[in-house]
Amino acid sequence: MVIPQKRWSSEWRALDHNPIALTNARMRRDWSQRRLAAEVGISRSYVSELEAGHRNANPALLLRLAAALRCSVGSLERRQAGAAAA
């Protein structure tokens, strides 16, 4: 049985967060994925999927992640292509 591969579609939504920035912020706190999950109120597997870029962090979750990690929401957000540098 052949399972068709998903292709990129304009219907797919780009990630609101930067998975690498999320991982780096967690590691700066010296926290495990399990600890971050407990602090934010989500499952460890959800944290793993966020860090891998397989799930999207909505704005409310980004706020909770930033508060737990003691960083700005902006540091976790994905930079938009073509956005002016500050």
Describe, in short, the structure shown:
The protein has 86 residues and is mainly alpha-helical. It contains five helices and no strands.
The ordered string of helix (H) and strand (E) elements is HHHHH
Structural class: mainly alpha
- The share of residues in extended strands comes to under 5%
Distance between the termini: 51 Å
Question: Which CATH top level class of the domain at 29-74 fits?
Answer: Mainly Alpha
Q: Any idea of the CATH topology of the domain at 29-74?
A: 434 Repressor (Amino-terminal Domain)
CATH architecture descriptor name of the domain at 29-74: Orthogonal Bundle
State the major sheet. Answer: none
Please, how many helices? 5
Assign an overall shape: globular
Low-confidence stretches: 4-12
Output mean pLDDT.
83
Q: What is the CATH superfamily label of the domain at 29-74? A: lambda repressor-like DNA-binding domains
How many whole angstroms does the radius of gyration measure? 14 Å
* Helix content class: 40-55%
Q: Please provide the count of β strands.
A: 0
